[in-house]
Amino acid sequence: MDEQYKTEGYRLMRAALPTGQVAALAALIDGSIPGYGGPIRRQDGTPAPNLFHAGTRLVKNSILNAHVAMPDDLKPVHTAIRALLTSPQMFESLHSLDGAEHYSIHQTIIFISAQTTVPHIDSWSMDTAPHGYAHTVWIPLEDVDYLSGLPAVSPWPIGKFVPEAELGLPDGDFSFRERHDRYCDALTVRLQKGSADVRTLFMDKGDMMVWGSLTPHFTLPSTPSPRRRLSLQVLIRPTHHRWGNYVNQPAEWTPDKAEQVTDRFAFIEN
After folding, report:
1. Residues forming a β-bridge with 268
2. What CA–CA distance (Å, rounded) separates 200 from 260?
């Protein structure tokens, strides 16, 4: 495993993806999604029409798993995302981090406007079994600056798992969502009390940032807010690892529904 990625839990990869391909995807999204009037699957998993920030044409309800399915009128976006995610450049970038020979893409989210998020770990959404060896890939689809609402990470060794009890969270009859939210609050307190380092990076289209499933991260506020910030987030696991999430290790409650797309990539519909 790449030594920086192993010890710090993130890696900025400059010019990792073809700039023209990324720019073409951005143009497709910008030219088709804000003007689309029908329902699209959103980040909460339900289909819904576009919701706009007041007084703008900035879509605020992000789009889930466009690589799996999109309405017929938006198929060019679907096709372009699939091509980018299965490109030789994407494989080589991931392979340089962990040496895996095949990857399963579990989730994509298209963000059209910047979103502010609290410190959290993506293990709660999707992880490997054992914890910590899945990747989150964040791809800016246009150049971003310090006002854009950038992701920020706190360096964290790959595989360093912190159970709820270690954060002082007692057992109880809590829902998955309640456990997640309590964990985020407690993690934030721990990072603040420990004066944790925070890293964020200027990025151009063609760059991508990768962090591990246990790496704490958040999104800085944008200026102005709301602000356009076309980007794509992808949850990926090396296929030789079984998968699960923070709570369920492994994910035996549902089988993989894998679509083998290339000899290097499969898409998981779950």
Report:
1. 258
2. 34
**Bridge-based pairing state of the strands 258-260 and 127-129:** unpaired
Q: At which residue do the structure tokens 């900035």 appear?
A: 58
Per-residue pLDDT, 253: 62
pLDDT tens digits, 161-187:
999 999 999 888 999 999 999 999 999
Residue 251: band (very low, low, confident or very high) from pLDDT cuts 50, 70, 90: confident
pLDDT exceeds cutoff 80 at 270: no
Residue 229's alpha-carbon distances to 26, 62, 131, 240, in angstroms, are: 10, 12, 31, 34
Measured CA to CA, the distance from residue 112 to residue 231 in angstroms comes to 7
Backbone angle region of 132, left / alpha / beta, with phi > 0 → left and psi within -120 to 50 → alpha: left
The domain defined by 3-161+198-268 folds into Jelly Rolls (2.60.120)
Domain ranges in the chain? 3-161+198-268
